[in-house]
Amino acid sequence: MEPNLISMAPEGLDDPARDRLIDANLDRAREGLRVLEDWARFGLDRRDLVVRTKDMRQRLGRLHRDAYKFARHTATDPAAGLGHPDQAERRSPSAVVGANAGRVQEALRVLEEFGRSSDPHLAEEAAALRYLLYDVEVDLLQACRLAATGGEGRRELLARCRLYLVTSPVPDLEGVVAAALGAGVRLVQYRAKEAAGLDDLQKLSQARALRQLCAAHGALFLVNDRIDIALAVEADGVHLGQGDLPPALARQLLGPDRLIGRSTHALAQLQQAVSEGCDYVGVGPVHATPTKPGREPVGLDYVRQAAAASPIPFFAIGGVEASNLAAVRAAGADRVAVVRAITEAVDPGAAAAALLAALEAPPL
Questions:
Q1: Which one of 73, 79, 134, 282 has the fewest beta carbons within 10 angstroms of its own beta carbon?
Q2: For 234-282, what is each residue's pLDDT tens digit?
Q3: Mean pLDDT value of segment 211-236
Q4: Which of 47, 263, 310, 329 is catalytic?
């Protein structure tokens, strides 16, 4: 027997006035988000902001019930077609972004207020999205400012990176990184955990030296965990673990143009990283590795899931080396992050060159 759809509907869902109001504000919010999304895509070339605005728009779209659409009757709407003189004054991208972000925020507040009694799930989502949009608006406005002044192209370079070197405390660390950079590596993360036995001044010195090396080769330089060190050496961004500061807080400290990466071990964590505005994610550990003692490997299944679902760059990590790279690529990873495969190689430059060549070759 088919379910009784009337009995399943939220209380008051058949109220025509409320349904028309909800429909109008869903339309208004989705349209405003599309304006923001398209400017992020075509005006700013900011994939990360496209992903965030598109995700918000699609979340609202899933809640736009047919019952709301059927209640629509534009011919009897007394405000249909009304404009305002201020609309003619929006002559800059920042003005358009600000106006449409405000439009979406207002519509979401209406949905939150009027959806509580008739559609609680819609009200809950509207409230959550409204708070997300506050941060997205700031990032969009700052991106507009950066675009007007030339931007730095960090995300464009990130998109081209296939091999990501994560450092470990080895002798002649600078020499190892220099050899990898000379072989073509263009993304380096400085990682010095407490077990390395270094104090903060030593870590700062190492980070500054590696930052200068990366700058000389036109490579991106990120710092693991330590936002303070990243800021001190003017790094290109940070990489955060699941137990580190939330990406939203990191973004407040770093600003809009630096990169934020996140370690993920399951699809739900990847999806959360996307919603939080991360620029890329690490996917793993694919294999057991002494770099992460006690961490159970996720195997290739998660790599396949990430390949099918991730809208942002992801790097397969965890015991990846030349001998198993083909299997990792076959699972769908175009990018990998390595530690020991380069830092403990007899010839770090040759090891990096071989990995890059394998990544650039057509998959088997």
A1: 79
A2: 899 999 999 999 999 999 999 988 999 999 999 999 999 999 999 999 9
A3: 91
A4: 263
Read off the pTM. 0.64
Give catalytic status of residue 263 as yes or no.
Answer: yes
Three-state SS for the chain is CCCCHHHHCCCCCCCHHHHHHHHHHHHHHHHHHHHHHHHHHHHCCCHHHHHHHHHHHHHHHHCCCHHHHHCCCHHHCCCCCCCCHHHHHCCCHHHHHHHHHHHHHHHHHHHHHHHHHHCHHHHHHHHHHHHHHHHHHHHHHHHHHHHHCCCCCHHHHHHHCCEEEECCCCCCHHHHHHHHHHHCCCEEEECCCHHHCCCHHHHHHHHHHHHHHHHHCCCEEEEECCHHHHHHCCCCEEEECCCCCCHHHHHHHHCCCCEEEEEECCHHHHHHHHHCCCCEEEECCCCCCCCCCCCCCCHHHHHHHHHHHCCCCEEEECCCCCCCHHHHHHCCCCCEEECHHHHCCCCHHHHHHHHHHHHHCCCC
Active-site choice (28, 54, 191, 251) = 191
Q: Which pLDDT does position 318 carry in this prediction?
A: 95
Q: Is 69 known to be catalytic? A: no
What is the predicted pLDDT for the residue at 149? 46
Give per-residue pLDDT as tens, 72-98. Answer: 876 555 555 545 455 545 457 888 998
Q: Is 292 a catalytic residue?
A: yes
